[in-house]
Every structure is written in C-alpha cells, then in structure tokens.
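User: Teach me something about this protein's shape.
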Amino acid sequence: MMKRVLRIIAVSAAGLIALCSCATNRYIAQDIGDKLHDIAVITPFAYINYIDETGVNAYDDSLSLMCSRLFTLGLLNSSLPTGPKITIDFDNDYPEFRDAVASLKDIDPRYAGEIPIPPILDSLLEANGLQYGVVVFANGFSRSRKNYVEAMATGLGIGILTTVISMGAVTTYIVPYKGMLNTWIGIIDAENDCFVYFNRRFEKDAEPDKPLYVYNQINRLLDHLELP
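Assistant: First, the predicted structure itself:
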C-alpha cells in the first residue's frame, strides 16, 4: 500500500512539473524583433550545485563557471544580433552585479514589460554606449554517476528524494534526475529603462555543464522572438 501511495505522489509531482513547464513564461515587446541591434552579451550568472557520491550537495564553482561560459558562447552564436561581450567576475570584481542578474528569477513574465531594469545593469550599458543587453541567470544541479546509479537502483518505490539547496531555496525532487537546468533570460533596453524580452525555462534531466543541454535551452528560450 505504501509503495502504491508513493508511486501516486511521484506521478502527481511529475504531472505538476509538466503543467508548470507549459505555462506562459515569456514577454515580448511589440515589434521589438525589428529594432534589436548590437545586443551586448553580459556574462551570465550561473549557480550550479553538485551532488557527490555520498549524496552531499553544495554549490560548485567549477560547474557554475563552465555553465556560464557555455551560455556566453551559445548566445554569441545564437540568432540574436549580438554586439560586444561585457565580462563580469561575479565573485571578485563585481559582486554587486550578482544580485541584479539573479533578480530575474523573481520576475513574473506577465508584468516583465512594466518592471524597470536593475539600475546597475542600466548604468553598465550606458557606460559602454550601448542600448541593448542580454542577461541570463541559470541555476540547477549535476550529480556524480555513482550517486545517480545508486539512486536509480534504489527505485521510486521507497520514495528516493533529491534535495537541492540553491541560493537559499530548498527544492526536493522525488525522481532522481541526473541533472536540472533552470534558466531566465532578459533583453534589456537601457535607453528606455525596460525589458523588451523576457523568458524562462525549467528543464529536468538537463546537465548544466554539457553544451548540448545549454545550447538547446538557449534555442528554446529564443524560439518566440521573431527576428528579421
């Protein structure tokens, strides 16, 4: 009976995740695709956890850096009309930018067009003589192969849990995914102090340090932006 209950919970949780993924997660300013030009690629901020062989999970700076670099490369080679790259060292040179970029996760897409952009990002673009910039915040986790294999072998029947702590938020997954990648992207307009495009995507079983998953995420995030 207990196994049956746990299976029902697992199915319900999976269904809820799927339902949330299908929700409207984007904002597009009217006719913005024709106006965009020389979009500065601001260093993406990635906060990635790693679950080791013993099941301990914690922030991993190497994975986070790799994820950030993959997003930068992916954006520079995407469909966006990109301009210069603006490099930020979130840990050392400019820690104050970290909160500004991470604040993307708190934006409700329905009201993104009404929210002024963080002043520090506005100033960054203006100081470089640029109108548009693209900012990305990504979080998620990856895990060791041994931990993943053991979790899968244990099975859902006894309610195996994966608990991830990311920037103060605790999330528990019933299914032992190999990884997860959640991404928020915004194109900001410094001249008019607003977001002209905003989207977000949450993807399970996506490893944040693998090019295939990151580039796929970028393509899907930009799918609805019509460019000439």
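Now, about its shape. Residues 5 and 161 are 15 Å apart (CA to CA). Helices lie at 2-21, 61-76, 96-102, 119-127, 145-154, 211-222. If you'd like, I can walk through any region in more detail.
User: That's plenty for now, thanks!
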